[in-house]
Amino acid sequence: MGFASHLGPWLLGTNKYTTGTTAATTQNMGAAIVSQTKAVAYADTTAQTAAFVLPAGALITACQFIITTAYTTTAPTFTIFIGGVQASSAITLATTGSGLVGAQAIPLGGNSAAGAALVNNVGSSDVTVAFTQSNGSGGTGAGTLVIAYIVRGSDGAMYPTVSQN
Hints:
- By secondary structure, the chain is mostly beta strands.
- The protein has one domain: Sandwich (Jelly Rolls).
- About 5% of the residues lie in helices and about 35% in strands.
- It has one helix and eleven strands; from the N terminus they run βββββββββαββ.
- Strands 4, 6, 7, 8 and 10 form a five-stranded antiparallel sheet that branches. The protein has a four-stranded antiparallel sheet with strand order 3-11-5-9, with helices on one face. A two-stranded antiparallel sheet has the order 1-2.
- β6 (about 75-80) and β7 form a beta hairpin.
- The longest helix has 8 residues, at about 115-120.
- It starts with 10 loop residues before the first strand and ends in a 15-residue tail after the last strand.
- The relative contact order is 0.29.
């Protein structure tokens, strides 16, 4: 399998523009959701470790942490930053009797108006997404941080104007 790149967004659908009032003549295109991943080790506890760079205008749809090696600690926390602005509350990863397991969603934007605005549109230039991790006591653990987003124009527009065929 090969890799391809595209200077997005990818719009999918059959009607690019609205030309009438029925479903068959109304714009029905939507943008594809893409994602990036970052392997996270137990020792990644420095302040704001860079994870991703998102393109200007991106709209973030989801963020999650998938634990691949159980954390042998109590109450490890994750916090997400977008362009240096805190975009998530410090979430405590879920635990079980055998350690931490599975995937956990990281809600973004709810801690402040600035965080919510960045989730809706990361801004007019590319932006770094970073995280902090606090592990308390223990010594092992690893996972994958995943962020999903819609690629849009640097102004946040998802659809071309009529003159941008």
